[in-house]
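Appendix C: a fully annotated inverse folding record. The material below is reproduced so that readers can follow the format used throughout the book. The structure is listed first as tokens, followed by the designed sequence.
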């Protein structure tokens, strides 16, 4: 329609009409582009707000998980230190009561971190992190993701120490399974029921064994260092959560 009017105006040399019709076309295109840009900006703001919301929910869940993880690692550390001490006391070690058996059987315990910042990692991998306008928040996400990855790497490194210690302790104690019964945790305690099905056939080879004692002590030290590091990660998560909740961190 506009093209026909422009053609007629050119034939009639009606330059005023040509100018008006051209302005109408240009203005229409301009308004259309502005509407598209506004819609794109609105969608980007909505996506950024959704991402920021998911990051906030995720970090709160992870903070709760890491608190439980620290408590678990502290229990494992306590048992490792108790075993190191009992191995050096011939009387209590040779008794091989259920507690001693449980300490030996549990020396390899080293629970992996079963939590992560999956939304943060996804935002980094897909480039969607750029939706968040705050450079401080983007940097916080990168740093926290790196810290969590490093914690996983540390676990992979330290678990070998626990595995080597477990193998040496089991071998020296002459661990042997007597029945096919299941182990069960006694309610409210860290003691396992059913340990009588395990026999330490050579307690004299583990009790006072300087090599095993050194390995167990090293495992306790490793556990201690790891627990401290996880605590530091928890502190960083607190700071990260505060940064995400900052009112200035709006998309």
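Designed amino acids, in order:
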């Amino acid at each position: 329609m506009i093209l026909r009017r422009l053609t007629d105006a050119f034939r009639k040399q009606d330059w005023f009409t040509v100018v008006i019709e051209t302005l109408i076309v240009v203005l229409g295109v301009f308004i259309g582009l502005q509407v598209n840009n506004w819609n794109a900006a609105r969608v980007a703001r909505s996506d950024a707000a959704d991402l920021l919301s998911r990051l906030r929910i995720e970090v709160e869940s992870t903070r709760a998980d890491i608190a439980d993880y620290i408590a678990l690692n502290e229990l494992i550390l306590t048992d490792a230190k108790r075993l190191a001490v009992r191995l050096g006391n011939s009387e209590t070690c040779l008794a091989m009561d259920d507690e001693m058996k449980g300490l030996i059987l549990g020396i390899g315990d080293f629970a992996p971190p079963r939590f992560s910042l999956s939304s943060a990692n996804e935002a980094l991998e897909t480039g969607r992190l750029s939706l968040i306008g705050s450079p401080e928040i983007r940097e916080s996400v990168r740093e926290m993701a790196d810290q969590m990855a490093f914690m996983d790497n540390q676990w992979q490194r330290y678990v070998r120490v626990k595995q080597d210690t477990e193998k040496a302790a089991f071998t020296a104690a002459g661990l042997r399974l007597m029945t096919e019964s299941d182990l069960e945790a006694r309610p409210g305690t860290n003691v396992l029921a059913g340990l009588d099905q395990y026999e330490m056939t050579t307690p004299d080879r583990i009790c006072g064994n300087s090599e095993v004692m050194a390995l167990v002590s090293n495992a306790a030290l490793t556990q201690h260092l790891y627990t401290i590091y996880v605590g530091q990660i928890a502190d960083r998560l607190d700071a990260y959560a505060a940064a995400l909740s900052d009112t200035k961190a709006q998309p």
